[in-house]
Design a protein that fits this description.
globular, NADH Oxidase, three-stranded mixed sheet, 2 domains
Amino acid sequence: MMTLKEAMKIRTSRRSFTDRPLSREVIHMLETQIQEANAHPGQLLDFHLVTNDKKAFSGLLKTYGLFSGVHSYIVAAGKAENIKAQELLGYYGELMVLKAAAMGVASCWVGASYDKSYVGQKLPPSDKLYCVIALGYANDHSSMGEKLARRFIRHDHTPDEVMEVDGSKQPPRWFMDGINAVLTAPSARGKLPVHFSLKNGIVTCHADENMGYEYIDLGIAKLHFELGADYIFYDLRS
């Protein structure tokens, strides 16, 4: 099985899946990761794995025809209007995405094009449904929905767009490794609205507004930076 660093480099969003169910090994891995994420201090997260259920993506008016064959997904919910919860959802959700990719499972972060009322009906009132992560084994060829989605998602970000450094100094190699890993991170509409800076050996980061998904984007990007730079954001562990 490939490493998370390898999975990070090759993983791309997919929206068309086969009817093959997730393997028992994949389900066990995801359920283990979900249990660990939901046990994070503060009890801010409420991930759930759903399998063998096509209803969330079955309505054309809800999915706009961009998805096909989705019958497994992760519900990414957490405390309502809580910035830390959103950031952690991005971080732990992307960790599941990459671990699944390392086991041959394709995925896609989905913010809007699914049946939110159906997916969120069993959540407690204190939780908010932020997004879902579609999972499955990808078809060999890209669907029309995938081709259409790629036309509206940007993939050509540069290091200068996501880093803020003193122009008189050359950033260290480990920091640039982290930045290059951030460039592979998924984000809402591919905007990648994150910025990382380095001062006295400490990395700080923030995100610009991105349709309400900016803190999830930031959590995803933080994981990618950690993997690329062998760095740890301790604020995510408390």
